[in-house]
UniProtKB/TrEMBL annotation:
EC number: 1.2.1.38
Record family assignment: Belongs to the NAGSA dehydrogenase family. Type 1 subfamily.
Active-site residue list: C149
Cited function: Catalyzes the NADPH-dependent reduction of N-acetyl-5-glutamyl phosphate to yield N-acetyl-L-glutamate 5-semialdehyde.
Primary subcellular site in the record, as a coarse category: cytoplasm
Alphabetically ordered keywords of this record: Amino-acid biosynthesis, Arginine biosynthesis, Cytoplasm, NADP, Oxidoreductase
One GO MF term: N-acetyl-gamma-glutamyl-phosphate reductase activity
Pathway: Amino-acid biosynthesis; L-arginine biosynthesis; N(2)-acetyl-L-ornithine from L-glutamate: step 3/4
Reaction(s) this enzyme catalyzes, per UniProt: N-acetyl-L-glutamate 5-semialdehyde + phosphate + NADP(+) = N-acetyl-L-glutamyl 5-phosphate + NADPH + H(+)
Record-given protein name: N-acetyl-gamma-glutamyl-phosphate reductase
Organism: Marinobacter aromaticivorans
Length: 345
């Protein structure tokens, strides 16, 4: 059994890790931290976990975490980077759900996250954990930087086009919408039901911290520096991201092979579903599931390919993808614990 620790177990992604790990046959959760809820049984706070976990929250303790085989960090940005060097020395493997190790350019990271990086040596060694791209590197990694939620939906949608060089890489557009759980569980006025309900707005249109992350991943796929306009929106739902993606085809004749290209690219990927051409994937069709579902579109007399890509931000966008990465790192069947279909309706 893999002995797992979770730092940040009261947040939305921490508790989603627990929900999925509750039925994972190869994992025991030996430690789950919260500074504010230390001593409180997990199942008292999250009754959906009653009968699954006997654990109580504890203060983060480096020596307890060092005794784990794998530690998930489900903490705000800036926490993992301070604790990682010690854990790495103990030989523990880590999947960090925050953005601390996602961006290789330290200056770019500091500009977007507003602080200097405190373990730059581990930024270099960390593997950006999108299994559909670098599965073999993840398998060997000691530290995996779990991708952001928007970047997962956006990158998976654009990847086949950029890998094959079929679109103009300098003018990509990603118009993305997220439910409010993407903002985490800590109280923020902008996330109150009274603020989010019956409303719909763009935010970060002049620049969002996921922009450099998307640019880094897609530039690697394209083999050239790409240009992307990314605008996130907040919609009045709890879980889910829909990203509508636009790219200009270099040669319109290639439209005829796009569907086969996408189906071929993801045929052996258990967590990507390419729907028939012209379908409209819904966020509720992936709610609770570790899945990115997508479909292609073309409007008449247009050279633009449109891709609609949906994920559950807490699952394929966070905890599910983190567990997928853990399965890959430990040589387990990649789908272990992640087979459940979505909740619908
Ligand atoms: N929500 C989402 O859809 C997604 C979130 N992420 C990322 O995952 C991470 C967690 O997100 P989310 O679950 O939403 O966040 P929450 O704000 O809901 O939870 C944060 C957790 O971290 C703990 N924590 C906060 N500060 C510290 C600290 N200094 N040391 C140790 N523990 C700390 C908190 O518990 P306590 O304060 O009691 O210790 C809490 O359990 C973030 O980096 C987020 O950006 C990634 C993809 C999607
Ligand atoms: C709706 C909402 O607020 N979404 C968050 C992104 C989700 C998230 O937690 O970002 P990471 O994946 O990088 O950790 C935001 O815009 O900052």
């Amino acid at each position: 059994m893999i002995k797992v620790g979770i730092v940040g177990g009261t947040g939305y992604t921490g508790v989603e890790l627990l929900r999925i790990l509750a039925v994972h046959p190869e994992v025991t959760v030996s430690c789950i931290t919260s500074r504010s809820e230390a001593g409180v049984p997990v199942a008292d706070m999250y009754p959906n976990l009653r009968g699954h976990f006997d654990l109580a929250y504890s203060e983060p303790d480096a020596s307890v975490l060092a005794a784990c085989d794998l530690v998930f960090f489900a903490t705000p940005h800036g926490v993992a980077m301070r604790m990682i060097p010690g854990l790495m020395e103990s030989g523990v493997r880590v999947v960090d759900l925050s953005a601390d190790f996602r961006i290789k350019d330290l200056q770019v990271w500091s500009e977007w996250y507003g602080m200097p990086h405190e373990s730059p040596e581990w930024v270099e060694k960390a593997v950006y954990g999108l299994p559909e791209v670098v599965r073999d590197e993840i398998a060997r990694a000691q530290l995996v930087a779990n991708p952001g939620c928007y970047p997962t939906a956006v990158q998976l949608g654009f990847l086949p086009l950029l890998e094959q060089g079929l679109v103009d890489p300098s003018r990509l557009i990603a118009d993305a919408k997220s439910g409010a759980s993407g903002g985490g569980r800590q109280g923020k006025i902008g996330m109150l039901h009274g603020e989010v309900g019956e409303s719909f707005k763009a935010y970060g249109a002049s620049g969002h911290r996921h922009l450099p992350e998307i640019r880094q991943g897609l530039s690697a796929a394209a083999g050239t520096e790409i240009g992307v306009t990314f605008v996130p929106h907040l919609v009045p739902m709890i879980r889910g991201i829909e990203a509508t993606l636009y790219a200009e085809m270099k040669n319109p004749a290639d439209f005829d092979r796009l569907q086969a290209l996408f189906e071929g690219r993801y045929r052996n990927e258990p967590f990507v579903d390419v729907m028939p051409f012209g379908s409209h994937p819904e966020t509720r069709s992936v709610r609770g599931a570790n899945l990115c579902r997508m479909a292609l579109h073309r409007q008449e007399r247009s050279n633009i390919v449109i891709i609609s890509s949906v994920i559950d931000n807490l699952v394929k966008g966070a905890a599910g993808q983190a567990i997928q990465n853990m399965n890959v790192m430990f040589g387990l069947k990649e789908t272990l614990g992640l087979e459940a279909p979505a909740l619908l309706p």
